[in-house]
Structure formats: C-alpha cells, structure tokens
Specification:
Keywords: CBS domain, Repeat. With 425 residues, the chain is α/β, with parallel strands linked by helices. Strands 1-2-3 form a three-stranded mixed β-sheet. A three-stranded mixed β-sheet has the order 4-5-6. A hairpin with a 7-residue loop joins strand 11 and strand 12.
C-alpha cells in the first residue's frame, strides 16, 4: 500500500469543492434531470427535508443527517421510469416527485471528518459507499502538514491565521478544528471520481501499480449485467441493480461461441442525452437499435411527440400505432430479420460506441480513459480482439487495486511502455 494514502486526509481532496446544495425528494423529475447534468458519476444524492424547524442555535448531528439521506438517483433510473407505459402516456410524468423514482439506500453516503485518513475513506468506498459528505464549516486550509513538507519544503499551517493565536497546540496544524463557524452546517460531496482524479496526480507514488496490466492485478469484474441485442431494450431495466450502473448489449460471434459487445445501456451513456427520446427508445426498440440511435437523436421533444409509437416487429401493449418522430430507419438501422441483428460492425460505432480497453491495458490507461470520458467504468475485451467481452472495470475495482498489499499479486508480464498506448475510445 502506498504511503500517500496514510499521509493524506480527506480534507486535502475537498479544497475548492463547491458547497453541496441538498436535492429533496419532493423535487420533480424535470428538476432532477437538470441537476444530474451538473453532477459527478451521473447521479445526485436525494434528501428528505428536515423535520425539525431551523431554530436559532440548532445544529443537526451526523446521525440525524444520515437518516435524512434517501439514496442516489442517476440518469438510467429516470429513463427507466419514463419508459414505463403509464409514464409514456402521461405528459405529467416529468412533474412526478423523485421520491417515486429513487431506490432508497442510505448506505451509499457517509459523513466523515476532513481529518479522516484517505486510506480509511478508500476502505469505506470499497465497502459500497459512493459519496462522502465532508463538512466545510470548519477551519481547513489545504494539504495535511505531514505530507506537505515532501512537496513544498516547508510546513503548511491549517489554522486560519498563523499569527492569530500563539497558544494553539502544536498538533492543531495536523488536524482541523471541529468548531462550527455558524449554526448552519455547510458540506461538500466527495465522489469516487474525485478520488480517481487525485490518484492520477500521484501515479509516481503508486509505482509499480500504474503500469501493471489489469489482468495481472486481477481486477477484471466478470459479474456484470448484459442483454442480447435481439431482445427488447426494456428488458434491461429488469436486471438487478449493480455497480457500475450499466448493462452490456451483446451479440454472438459468427461461431456462436463468444459474445461481442456492441454497446451499453448505462447511466454514463444517458447522462446528458434527451431523456424523453431515450425513454421512448427504451420502451419501443430492440437493445441493438437502442445503443445505435439513442444519442444520435438528441433534439428537444415533448411527450406528445412520442405518444403514437410502435414496438418493432408488431404490436406493443395491445395496440399498433404509427411511429411519429423517432424511427430506427431514420438513423440507418434496417434489420433483415426481427430476431437476428445482421448489420455491419461500423453501424454501431460513433457516439454510442462503448468505452473499451484490453486485458493487457495498464491500470493507469484505464484510469485515464474513465476520467477523460467522465465514465464510471470501462468494458474489457480480449487482448487479441476489439469486441469479445471479458468483463468490466469500475471505480470499485480500481480502489481495490491501489490499496492492495504488494504481496497480493506478482506482476508477470509488466509493460513499461507509455500507458496512453493502450487507450481506446
């Protein structure tokens, strides 16, 4: 384990982070879509409103705040909700409160002190925590003293004013004071994406891990959700929830012994798409059609544009109506058989192409891919194939790799070439 995790604290990663504004469960789906577009990891924490009035001098403790946290709402949750038949037929669906959409799980967020060691924060995230709530209403000025001397050549003081009080204890510069500056708590939210961004900045301290292949590290997750391209896309919403929030769209190879990935239905891909168009496509298209067209038709539409639709290959919900706006043919999809997708590989490429790497890719290359694309995961293909799927690597796998003891793995075929060489978009 790198010493950087022992010397750094959570507060070091929150410098410059904006104050979190709570998004309440009474807000509408329409408001959630706007908030998600400005969020990290394609999702937003959802809160209950305070039951106790904000009385003068009242300070909410961490336990009370934890109980108010509902869960994390992402773009895939909203698209899946809007794709329900009762929502597609109701223009008021965008005004529904998010309490009817979000899956309750208050274990996904945990409040921590800015002085919490980074290694302890990583362990929490490895156990399933996706957001860390860090108080901002404390005196905290940047990097921890123990580590700052290695980079700056001098001690940094975390107190507000180095000359304000000569009676401060010597270790007060190591840990932030917990005295509140106001009766109203202020917090920022630290995501796993923030942690990966920090790790990219200290790759040298993690050597030799960054240049080690993900297969050598043993972090390729083979327990992922998938759906065949010939099945209705709506079937993907019936898969159990997992991390990352993504479903691979697969098609059998010519010898029918393996599956190749042609796209994905995920919170990452749907992050800033046209939610109404995506919901219509999810309810009416095959999975193969969906991954081709959902992001290629991103003009603004209203629900009335999608009320007259047709399910590919016949009737849907007992009615057969004419497609009005969104047409798979208009985006170049013309399957010769409703049960078998026989289209060229190039038809699937472009904006909807899945983010992939190879089993031989280095850990640093995968981390760089995720950050540059603002993705929560990267699909892993065979070393000698561009699309035969092996597994997936997400935030959890990366955090597991960087916190492993050196004896936990023995690099066999370590590559010391530039880690950007393996990056695929």
């Amino acid at each position: 384990m790198a010493s950087v995790f022992l010397y750094h604290v959570v507060g070091d990663l929150t410098v410059g982070k904006p104050e979190m504004v709570e998004f309440y469960e009474t807000e509408t789906v329409e408001s959630a879509i706007r908030a998600i577009g400005e969020s990290t990891e394609c999702g937003i924490p959802v809160w209950r409103k305070r039951s106790t009035p904000s009385l003068p001098g009242f300070v909410e403790n961490s336990e009370m705040r934890q109980q108010r946290f509902v869960g994390i709402l992402n773009s895939l949750d909203i698209v899946a909700f809007l794709a329900k038949s009762e929502c597609l037929q109701e223009e008021k669906a965008m005004k529904i409160p998010v309490s009817e959409v979000v899956s309750p799980d208050n274990t996904l967020l945990k409040q921590v002190d800015p002085g919490t060691r980074l290694i302890d924060a990583l362990e929490m995230m490895k156990q399933g925590v996706r957001r860390l709530l860090v108080p901002k209403s404390v005196v905290w000025r940047g990097m921890s003293k123990r580590f700052s001397i290695l980079y700056n050549g001098k001690w940094l003081k975390n107190s507000e004013n180095s000359s304000s009080s000569s009676g401060l204890a010597s270790d007060s510069t190591n840990r932030p004071t917990t005295s509140m500056t106001s009766s109203r708590d202020k917090f920022c939210c630290l995501s796993r994406e923030d942690v990966i961004r920090f790790l990219i900045g200290v790759l040298g301290a993690l050597a030799p891990l960054p240049l080690t292949s993900i297969s050598t590290l043993g972090i390729i997750n083979q327990n992922y959700n998938f759906i065949e391209a010939s099945l209705p896309a709506i079937e993907s919403t019936r898969r159990p929830q997992c991390d990352p929030s993504a479903i691979a769209v697969l098609e059998q190879t010519e010898n029918e012994q393996q599956f190749k990935i042609i796209g994905e239905i995920s919170a990452s891909k749907l992050w800033k798409c046209d939610y109404l168009a995506a919901a219509w496509a999810l309810a009416n298209l095959y999975a193969g059609q969906f991954v081709m067209g959902v992001e290629d038709n991103m003009s603004s539409r209203s629900f009335s544009d999608f009320l007259q639709t047709s399910f590919p290959g016949g009737e849907h919900n007992g009615t057969a109506t004419k497609a009005k706006k969104f047409s798979s043919r208009s985006i170049g999809f013309n399957p010769t058989s409703p049960t078998r997708l026989s289209i060229g590989r190039s038809m699937y490429r472009g904006r909807s192409a899945p983010l992939t790497c190879k089993t031989s890719s280095s850990l640093a290359a995968v981390m760089a891919q995720m950050l540059s694309h603002r993705a929560t995961h990267v699909w892993v293909t065979e070393a000698d194939s561009d699309d035969v799927l092996v597994g997936v690597v997400g935030y959890g796998e990366i955090l597991t790799a960087v916190t492993k003891q050196p004896s936990a793995f023995v690099p066999s075929n370590r590559s010391y070439e530039g880690f950007g060489n393996d990056t695929q978009s």
